[in-house]
Amino acid sequence: MRVALFITCVNDALYPGTGRAVVTLLERLGVEVGFPAAQTCCGQVQYNTGYRHQTEPLVRRFVDAFAEYDAVVTPSGSCAAMVRDNYPRIGQRAASEGRGGELTELAGRIVPKVHELSEFLLDVLHVEDVGAYFPHTVAYHPTCHSLRMLKVGDRPTRLLRAVKGLELVNLPGADECCGFGGTFSVKNPDVSAAMGADKVRNAVDSGAQVLCAADNSCLMHIGGTLSRRGGGPRVLHLAEILASTEGNVS
Amino acid sequence: MSGAEPFPEAARVSVRNAQLRSNLRHATHTIRAKRAKAVAELADWGRLRAAGAAIKDRTLRHLDHYLEQLESAVTAAGGQVHWAVDADEANRIVTRLVKATGETEVVKVKSMATQEIGLNEALAAAGIRAYETDLAELIVQLGDDRPSHILVPAIHRNRTEIRDIFRHEMGHWGRPAPEDLSDSPAELAEAARLHLREKFLRAKVAVSGANFMVAETGTLVVVESEGNGRMCLTLPETLISVVGIEKTVPTWRDLEVFLQLLPRSSTAERMNPYTSTWTGTTDGDGPREFHLVLLDNGRTDTLADQVGRQALRCIRCSACLNVCPVYERAGGHAYGSAYPGPIGAILTPQLRGTASALDASLPYASSLCGACYEVCPVAIDIPEVLVHLRERVVEGGSATRDGARVTIKPAKGHAAERAAMRAARWAFEHPRALRAGERLASRTRGLHPTRLPGPGAAWTASRDLPRVPPEPFRDWWQRTHGGREAK
Fold it and tell me: Biased composition, Basic and acidic residues: where in the chain (chain B) (predicted)?
């Protein structure tokens, strides 16, 4: 099986540590990972802001970039959901506009290959204990698109519970949105900030040392709010916890 | 109301209202938890929900047929059917019908459709006073306020505020509240009961909406919790019901599905307390005259849109409002229409169009968290419709307005965003340029400001920016795994 990493544009530019962690983790599990340099962005921001037509070339690029691989792993619930839920929709809309079935065909080809990290570990590799060590208390924020679009369920927490030294604590109001929402965060900054403040209060109340999620966009918002406020847990992507070992703790 | 300020501006004020935030948080979280429990009791909820969506879709697909069937049945049962293409026409019809009775007062059953068309204001302009008889609508009317929730219109008020409104305002509308009225629910309810009883016994004309209209028999259905609606539906001599055309269900068997879906989703009850049904008129029992005003007001245009039409499945349960994190913080008034919350954000821009700044801002009043879709009892994919309407705002395109296909121009104020999206797309189509940009950002990371000017200030006002790393992932990969991807 040829496995590729889809790093996502946000992780590539701002959170390369998450990408390094995915590579480290998968290599530790014996998976050889490829990184096609032609990959860029799934088009989620464009699509969710209303620029569907701008997304179409990015759909073509995405499918093309990963054409030679059997599986595409990505450390972002919302980017995986973008491909799985919205690529077929973009295809249908193009067809309904009389532009043929090309995008539908491309979507049909890529959708079964794309896996969010926790799905890949549990559903494809069938590994729950990835051999990680992380001696901290951790609260897990499920993120809306992992929870409600991908429906990853308890996969991430099963992985976390298997980590040596890690204590998983309850996050009050866990399934409530953090208020990021892509361009929502700047189009409705007051509501976004109010939601962020409530999420941060719950993160602090959880008593955790680390707030973990499987999507760095949400963590950018939560972490940015925490950093402005001062104190509270630090934020860390699931991949970085799973990549940690006794010799090398994130 | 459509001249109101855009959503983000209205929300900027309401998020800072601590009392409002606390009232809304308490109320929505309470109903949310109760609903979840009530729904979890049914093992076949998923199938019931799918059935509700399928019945609505089938009815909407053949709406012309069912509306004609409904009209025939209502007429055969002694009612009169009127067709209103828009709010003005509906208001004119109702005003004319009330005037024909010689009355200058009407009692009202809680109704979303009459709020949508601004009926009370139209009647007032014609010298007719409309009395709201739903407890929460009464609070709103006495407080010279606007509803902020579909099911609990006074959700933004707490008991103390309600006591003050009753004490100060009830006397101007009829029987006053006792001087020493406390804020205990029992005393508040008793004051409202005595005040309203006087209205019920005097009224000769009632105006209602309806939750459902059964086409096969011409039966209208009102679902309510207080019994005040039933007083209006049975005591007056004339009953006028204003109902959106999408409220049609073909048969009583179809109705059965919705009478299970609606109470659990809205009030978290297993069975609705007061379900009133009536078919035309009955000699010696209830109103002697019955008029049904079928309201379009943008619904046929909405039906023409392949993605947006699912909004017409809505049964006004409010479950989406009660789980919405944006509604919880912004409050219902920020949505600037009778329909607040996620459903309002997809319904209003379709019924009214996206021409005003407020209506164009509504599709963006969501973080797309998907909680609304998850609880919707008729499976309206609200996030999907929101994104679809965002496209209409920023890209324009084809839509149906007033029954005709029109090309909508992109809304004003999105030029910079459109340019940024195009630039981003260009970079994403040129990975080398993207990589050069990332490198440049990394090399200059020491120079990045922590607070941004212009549109970026919307981020940095409440959040720190992430620090740009010394090396983008691409470069690390090249350095450590270089060449491996070259297949």
Answer: 472-487
